[in-house]
């Protein structure tokens, strides 16, 4: 064995003889330097359906996530709120992620509908709110309740609905969605967009969403915002 030479590789010290060192330097290839590729992450956003791609007739299971009578947060005045189950938009940061599942909660029932109609009869109750989940992907449930409310109370109670659809998207949608839209008073439209989140807004979570006066918008053919909008 020849003269030992002290070498340091990646901080480790070792001793090799001159002959071995010469052989290794001839035969060894330098390890290819691992290319550091910076991963560019595309920010994930909500899904964007084609017109009539998502149909309540195919998706809805007729389930509801919750019913909250006499609350003050789901629209103007005291309201009875029905949270339907199932939504396809999958907005990151969704306020009610469990209700994205169409089988979450319990089946909507005649007994519950009776209860909601009775609750709405209270003088202090201004109206019904539909949210979820996605009300426009549960039109069977929502239209049943809407029609019963109108048959019982006419226009003395108002109807609000939230939706992930934008107003213009809904105009190209299936007949059941258009029917439901024509029977409500106020629509809060659009996906929840996390980068536009603003907790100071009235009744909505991100600044792209709008509170729309449905009757006036349908009458004029353009979006008319709710008259009591402050922010
Ligand atoms: S539209 Fe509403 S319920 Fe549906 S994922 Fe978005 S925030 Fe959640």
From TrEMBL:
Q: Where is the sequence biased in composition, kind Basic residues? A: 33-44
**Entry cofactors:** [4Fe-4S] cluster
Q: What keywords are assigned to this protein?
A: 4Fe-4S, Iron, Iron-sulfur, Metal-binding, S-adenosyl-L-methionine
Q: Where is this region: Disordered?
A: 18-52
Q: Which InterPro entries match?
A: Aldolase_TIM, NrdG, Organic_radical-activating, rSAM, rSAM_sf
> Which named protein is this?
Anaerobic ribonucleoside-triphosphate reductase activating protein
Q: Which organism is it from?
A: Ligilactobacillus pabuli
In the record, what lineage is assigned to the organism producing the protein? Answer: Bacteria, Bacillati, Bacillota, Bacilli, Lactobacillales
């Amino acid at each position: 064995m020849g003269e030992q030479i002290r070498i340091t590789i990646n901080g480790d010290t070792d001793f090799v003889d001159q002959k071995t060192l010469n052989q290794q330097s001839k035969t060894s290839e330098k390890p290819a330097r691992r290319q550091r590729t910076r991963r560019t992450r595309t920010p994930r956003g909500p899904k964007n359906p084609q017109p009539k791609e998502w149909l309540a007739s195919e998706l809805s299971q007729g389930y509801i996530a919750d019913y909250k009578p006499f609350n003050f947060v789901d629209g103007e005045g005291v309201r009875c709120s029905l949270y339907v189950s199932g939504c396809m938009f999958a907005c990151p940061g969704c306020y009610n992620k469990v209700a994205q599942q169409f089988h979450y909660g319990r089946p909507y029932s005649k007994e519950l509908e009776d209860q909601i109609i009775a609750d709405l009869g209270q003088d202090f109750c201004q109206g019904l709110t539909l949210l979820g989940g996605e009300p426009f992907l549960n039109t069977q449930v929502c239209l049943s309740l809407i029609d019963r409310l109108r048959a019982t109370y006419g226009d003395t109670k108002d109807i609000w609905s939230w939706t992930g659809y934008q107003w213009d998207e809904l105009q190209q949608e299936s007949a059941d969605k258009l029917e439901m839209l024509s029977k409500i008073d106020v629509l809060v439209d659009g996906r929840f967009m996390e980068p536009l989140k603003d907790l100071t807004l009235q009744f909505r979570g991100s600044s792209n969403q709008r509170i729309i006066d449905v009757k006036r918008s349908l009458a004029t053919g353009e979006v008319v915002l709710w008259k009591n909008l402050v922010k």
